[in-house]
């Protein structure tokens, strides 16, 4: 048995030795303890394994010396965090502890910080993702108690819900606001004398008649001693992903889309991942489709790499489909195509470009494969999409509703630029609407009957852009002269609302790349003595004129 007096002496000796450089003595060369006071971090592990490798990646990424950090984990069943504790190299962190039996983890966090003589105590759970600089930013505010504003990645929720107004949450006013309570995360400065009055245990205070919840107890203890609690939105501190408002499957879908959105913005793999835990990915599925096609040009491998990671994170099982590169089409190949008489782009007032021809041919080849292989339904995605916040959930529920209602359909826009306005929701469907004149083919679902209808009108004999062709085929195009060249126009088209996918970048945004807008304009063919199907190796003989244009 240890002598308690000796143990107390050791604690005192440790405290004095670590605090000596803050006690008036100049720090030695290379000593940074005065710059980075001891920090205690306590973490409640919630029951969602899919976030842990990413959450711990952010903890490992904190810009604070690891040998100045003490970490205490709370997890009722020591299953999830035990692997990290076992595998993370010893000696990096000053102290790592784990508790699986606890009644009031917040109060035990406070006792942990005090008993380890920590200057600062950070209390959080795995719903809260703090960015690497957040600790230093919070400490710089010089508050006894402060919480960072954390917002859901796609808006709608925050850790200040019901506590602060939209102007604060949306960052219209950048400030520190005093509040009565905080759900966390909470950073406390334990070196301030008043911090000794703070508690999460109602047994430690008198004249308390609240509901007994630790958060309410803490708020009362602060209020009773006139200790202000602050919320700050002065910086982008991180993200809040609630584990209480969604089912487990919905949590996983939203979290996967959150990670995929990071990839869309920055590239793979921008989100910190733990050094010792394998990153989580959902089991890839096709969401009830026979095939999911991802169209990509061979000369754009970086787009393919990014989309592989995006689709892996959202759990979509796909097949890479090599696009037809309009830049590489020869004059002989182009001469095999008849353009729609009088066609010009409605906005730019010009004939088709090489990239637009390649785009149409790429989709055309997929329709042919769908018919050849007998796929009853498929998804077609281009390689410059990002998934909307609940994109995969919308796709899943749309397929569930189609199965229940047995609605006949040929094509469903999963992402589009809506131009017409005469649309309405389809009865019996949660996310399906009728569709008016629309542009964009960045993502759509297509049935076997839809592919057959698109091929049956022989569009390569009167080619126009794909954006204009599809509305003609479901008979909602405003140009009656163009529409008259195609019959029948009976494509059963719909659209999801909200959209499942959207453009990764818009025109003029940093990182925007277009393989259609920047290509050459192709003049109308002069002669077509031998019309062939270029996808089957047919070749025509007529000459073709090219008009070079600057990139738009």
UniProtKB/TrEMBL annotation:
Identify its protein family.
Answer: Belongs to the glycosyltransferase 25 family.
Single GO term (MF): transferase activity
The keyword Iron-sulfur is assigned to this record: no
Indicate what this protein is called per its UniProt record: Glycosyl transferase family 25 domain-containing protein
Which residue positions does the secretion signal occupy?
Answer: 1-21
Q: Which UniProt keywords apply?
A: Glycosyltransferase, Signal, Transferase
The Glycosyl transferase family domain covers 290-457
Q: Which Pfam families does this UniProt record tie to the protein?
A: Glyco_transf_25 (PF01755)
- Is Transit peptide one of the keywords UniProt gives this record? no
Task: Supply the CDD domains for this chain.
Answer: Glyco_transf_25 (cd06532)
């Amino acid at each position: 048995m240890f002598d308690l007096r000796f143990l107390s002496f050791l604690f005192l000796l440790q405290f004095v030795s670590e605090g000596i450089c803050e006690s008036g003595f100049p720090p030695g060369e290379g000593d940074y303890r005065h710059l980075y006071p001891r920090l205690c971090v306590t973490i409640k592990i919630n029951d969602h394994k899919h976030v842990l490798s990413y959450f711990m990646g952010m903890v490992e990424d904190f810009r604070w010396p690891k040998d100045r950090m003490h970490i205490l984990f709370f997890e009722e069943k020591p299953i999830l965090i035990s692997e990290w504790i076992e595998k993370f190299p010893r000696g990096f962190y000053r102290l790592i502890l784990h508790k699986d039996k606890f009644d009031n983890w917040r109060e035990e966090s406070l006792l942990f910080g005090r008993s380890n003589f920590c200057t600062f105590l950070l209390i959080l759970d795995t719903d809260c993702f703090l960015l690497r600089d957040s600790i230093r930013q919070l400490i710089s505010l010089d508050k006894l108690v402060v919480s960072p504003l954390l917002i859901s990645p796609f808006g709608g929720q925050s850790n200040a819900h019901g506590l602060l107004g939209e102007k604060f949450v949306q960052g219209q006013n950048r400030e520190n606001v005093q509040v009565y309570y905080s759900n966390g995360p909470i950073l406390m400065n334990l070196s301030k004398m008043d911090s000794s009055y703070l508690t999460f245990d109602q047994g430690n205070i008198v004249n308390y008649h609240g509901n007994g919840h630790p958060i309410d107890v803490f708020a009362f203890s602060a209020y009773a001693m006139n200790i202000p609690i602050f919320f700050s939105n002065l910086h982008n501190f991180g993200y809040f992903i609630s584990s209480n408002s969604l089912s487990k499957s919905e949590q996983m879908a939203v979290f996967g889309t959150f990670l995929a959105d990071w990839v869309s913005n920055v590239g793979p793999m921008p989100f910190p991942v733990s050094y010792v835990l394998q990153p989580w990915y959902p089991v890839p599925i096709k969401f009830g489709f026979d095939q999911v096609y991802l169209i990509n040009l061979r000369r754009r491998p970086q787009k393919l790499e990014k989309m592989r990671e995006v689709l892996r994170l959202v759990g979509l099982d796909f097949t890479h489909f090599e696009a037809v590169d309009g830049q590489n089409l020869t004059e002989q190949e182009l001469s095999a195509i008849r353009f729609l008489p009088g066609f010009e782009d409605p906005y730019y007032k010009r004939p088709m470009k090489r990239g637009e021809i390649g785009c149409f041919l790429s989709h055309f080849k997929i329709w042919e494969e769908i018919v050849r292989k007998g796929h009853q339904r498929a998804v077609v995605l281009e390689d410059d999409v990002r998934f909307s916040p609940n994109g995969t959930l919308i796709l899943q529920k749309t397929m569930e509703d189609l199965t229940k209602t047995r609605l006949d359909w040929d094509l469903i826009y999963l992402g589009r630029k809506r131009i017409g306005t005469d649309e309405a929701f389809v009865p019996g469907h949660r996310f399906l609407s009728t569709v008016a004149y629309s542009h964009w083919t960045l993502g759509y679902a297509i049935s076997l009957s839809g592919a057959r209808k698109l091929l049956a009108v022989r569009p390569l004999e009167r080619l126009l852009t794909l954006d204009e062709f599809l509305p003609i085929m479901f008979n909602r195009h405003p140009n009656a002269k163009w529409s008259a060249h195609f019959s029948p126009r009976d494509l059963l088209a719909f659209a999801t609302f909200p959209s499942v996918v959207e453009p990764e970048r818009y025109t003029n945004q940093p990182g925007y790349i277009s393989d259609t807008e920047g290509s050459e304009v192709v003049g109308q063919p002069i002669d077509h003595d031998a019309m062939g199907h270029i996808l089957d190796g047919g070749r025509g003989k007529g000459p073709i004129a090219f008009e070079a244009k600057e990139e738009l």
